[in-house]
Amino acid sequence: MFSRCSPDVLQTFSRRSPDVLQMFSRCSSDFLQMFSRCSPDVLQTFSRCSPDVRLSARVVTSGEVDLRPSLLLQPPLMKDEKVDLSLKPLPPPPVIISSPAASWIKASGEEPVSAEMSFLSVLLPPTGLLLLLLLSFMSSVDGSESSVPHPISCVTRGADLTEDGVVLLCPPDCTQGGGSVFGTGVYASVSSVCGAAVHRGVLGPSGGPVRIHKLQGRHNYMSSYTHGIQSQPLSQWSASFRLTKPVNVPLELTSVTSTTALPAAERPVKKPQKKPSVKKALTGGNKDCQIDIAMLIDSSNNIGQRRFNLQKNFVVKLVSMLRVGPTGPHVGLIQASDSPQIEFLLTNYTQPKELTFAIKEVSYLGGNTNTGKAIMQAAETFFLQENGGRRGHPRVMMVLLDGWPSDDLEQAALLARESGINVFLVSVAKPVPEELAMVRDKDFMKKAVCKDNGFFSYLIPGWFTTTKHVRPLSQRLCSLDALLCSKTCYNSVNIGFLIDGSSSVGEGNFQLVLDFLVGITRSFEVSDVGARVGAVQFTYEQRLEFGLFDHHDKEEAITALKRIRYMSGGTSTGEAISYTTNKLFRRTGPGRNFLIVVTDGQSYDDVRHPALEAQKQGITIYSVGVAWAPLDDLRAMSSEPKEGHTLFTRDFTGLTEFIPLIVRGICRDFTESN
């Protein structure tokens, strides 16, 4: 409405200072003409003011109060200057203009006035009345901006919100571990809303309310570093948003009382606040392929612009087949050229459509095929947790080559293998003679891949035949058991604890045993795709406390261990070993199963035969004896070599010293058998 007023009027209203009266007193004689250029809709705005303002307007227009507009429009008084306050006849009324405002101000028995004068009568009452009207008007404007903030998380993106202009409540500390931000001032809708708000300076690190304004997509989102957040560039995106700090936003619903109640018919109906709806994730991803993948594509002079585009199309088809999602595979992308260039990290895009768009947006670089340099950088930083790497998840680097690399891969590949990264090398088309003469190492494929067994290298005859290779390559990438370079003892073993709960142990010592087992558990990466832990307690009887597949992370497993209740009874260790072999390890394969037996006395049954049967099924046994446990029984249970798998201490407090010995022993055994 006010956009059709003169700029002077807008500037006057924008100040909202306590000196509003003085501002009006300094207005020029053209003051009336400025307001006469406003549309009639402005008058309707004042019709929604409080009842006090309505009443004041009626009093003013009825002639009961001398407005003295000529006095109010005079310049400011000089020192010792006096003003004539005597009443003088009012000027004759101007010509009446038919408008909604005239009928609004008209009271019973009164004549309507012109739109200009009726509007002026509202704006120029005596001093106190003028201030009341302005404050009422400003509060109505502020009230239109206020709304109850809707809480969101640090990773909520603009694309996740369906409504425009809503107020959102950001949590604190979104500068640490929040989502990515793309752009400066105007942000791509794939950006974190709270991260963008901090980057813009609308919010501080402590969080708070922010208003989102949706915009159309644009080109060339610029990167910058401000307020502790680094935004990233983006060549284009389909939608954008900007952020402002809302005015007078309550943190909870409040009510405002009025001095004069409106009749029931005139009371505005307060509509309930509608919370902005947040889109649910389109897909969770392939849970059978929970891996982190770094796609390293060729952007050198060898490939050229045309084949570079074919390469991107191949990668798009491959990630579509992988079924990327928050609980499935995560994909990031790096370009190999003179210097490696990271295009996006593992958690920047976890939905297929967004990821596809981002891949298609990648621009061709040119330059040499320095694949070794790119592998080196990716191995050092790409899979770090702060860059989106997930603990306990297999790491895969798929390297696409058009021809042969320009630099040496041996040292880079060695670093990748030692970092637990499975390097797949996909070579498309054979090198031309000119390339062959420049290659430093013709055996680069054997040295670059995770293991030279044919599984980690893949040859494609040409870029026009890549489609039929998408499915078999995706199946290789998702073959978790074959990803040898990610298989370390810390994320691949199954550990069973066989706990003596006999009467000779006692309640206090039993807690020391549990603390010992918790210490071992903390050394491994327990997860659905990593290490697993289970426990059995025994006396004459056996009790499965929890299985290998019952708990999905380390903290769950540790909590379950701490909650084990002491049984008390006799000691039948041999029968307990047989029970554990059949119940705890029945769903697992050989080569990764370890059983740690903790006992403080002699078994009433034979332990040798059950232990041999367990070892035949691929279970490595560590026997830990305390106090009165006979050394012969301990050695009979333990795996070969006996010296490395048999431990003994006189007191339960000495168990903690065995934690590093057992962890190193498990890693040694795992490495030798795999």
UniProtKB/TrEMBL annotation:
InterPro entries assigned: ECM_Assembly_Org, LCCL, LCCL_sf, VWF_A, vWFA_dom_sf
Main subcellular location of this protein, as a coarse class: secreted
Keyword annotations from UniProtKB, A to Z: Disulfide bond, Glycoprotein, Repeat, Secreted, Signal
A GO CC term assigned to this protein in UniProt: extracellular region
CDD domains reported for this sequence: vWA_collagen
Gene Ontology BP terms: sensory perception of sound
SUPFAM superfamilies reported in the protein's UniProt record: LCCL domain (SSF69848), vWA-like (SSF53300)
Record localization: Secreted
Domain VWFA: 292-477, 494-662
Domain LCCL: 148-241
Function: Plays a role in the control of cell shape and motility in the trabecular meshwork.
PANTHER family the UniProt entry points to: COCHLIN, COLLAGEN ALPHA
Protein name: Cochlin
